[in-house]
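I have been asked to look over a protein record a colleague put together. The record follows directly below this note.
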Amino acid sequence: MIRSVTVGIPVGAKSPAELEEGAKTLIAEARSVLGDANMVPRTIRYTLPAVGIKGEDEGTVLSTLRWIDNLAAETGVRWFCLPFDFVEEGPRRQRLSTALDIISRFPRLFMNLIVADEERLSVPAINDVASLVTKIARKSNNGFDNFRVGASCGCPANSPFFPFSRHEGDDIAFSFALETTGIALAVVQELGTAPDLDLFRDRLVERLTESLGEIHALGEEIAARTGAVYKGLDASFAPFPDGEMSVAALVEHLLGAPVGSHGSVFVTGVLTDAIRASLRNSGALSVGFNGVMYSLMEDNALAAANSRRNINMDAMVSLSAVCGCGVDMVPISGNSFPEEIAGLTLDIAQMALSLHKPLGVRVLPIPNKSQNEFTEFNLDFLCDSRVVGLQAHDRKLTTSAPTLNLLSPRFSNSLNS
């Protein structure tokens, strides 16, 4: 049920020796407490503070990454995340060059490319990041490196799900990324075919409330034992490519039609509401997305729906209005224009600002593959699927200012008051 324990490392706030000791203590206690509760996490991960605010050069970044890579190897941590703040003004060309260099140097590395915060988006940053994604795709024969790269929009600090994670604060902290999909699928099985949605929601809220309360208590226990700051949990319905833990299958059970059909947005909203109600009822501290995660190449049923062309990019963008993570893990043509990727990212960034919700974009341009051809990763943690097409777009949108502050539609309610 716990996908990951994500540990925030405040690089620069304490000495490397203090950080190493604190991280080792936290990981040991987390494994002990969660193991005793029969909730062993799939992975433990590190996330770092954002690069770019202080104008860090490549040498500084490389030094930090070598240190965290060694610490990860020593502590049995599989992944770590380095965020780049592209919203803030600064030497973006250097940061882009650094990002392109390090993605292949450090196989444990994920990169969170921040192109919008909770109030602003940067059109130049989105254009640059889109170009970076196409360059990263060409670093390998299959485009796999972009699995570890995402553009984030309005994602809060200490979110546990990668690659949309970053640490903030002067203390070591941690948060939980959960997999609650199994609970929802169990409720569906109990209620049978075509259950009343209100009955399903009420029973799901009851089950989730109990589970979230238990996990929250474990987080507080770990914090009390270690002195680390517990930032909360992300109770998202997240998929896992094992043929069973499918968010798309959950939606299809409730909808009675392929995911992407009309009604999918509504059902997604019902599921999101259940998470919010459960968080409120349980009193659990929350952080991150806390929504329904449509991650195409990590969800067997969603990948199958895409391969059958029951869902397309327009549907995935529409679902972002109510889902948890935006457009995630979508294979696109290797010859996609950067302008097309930028246009997609601008849509998601605007949606994040307008709806006051965190969203991200993670697309994988697949070299030598065109729309409707199939990926061939053959990996146990990814689902191969049909390559998705982007709508033709050969014009780069620009602004004279580095960022745009765009008012939410909600602001219109107060215009005449």
Q: What stands out?
A: The CA atoms of residues 272 and 323 lie 7 Å apart. The longest strand covers residues 109-116. The longest helix spans residues 197-226. The two ends are 47 Å apart (CA to CA).
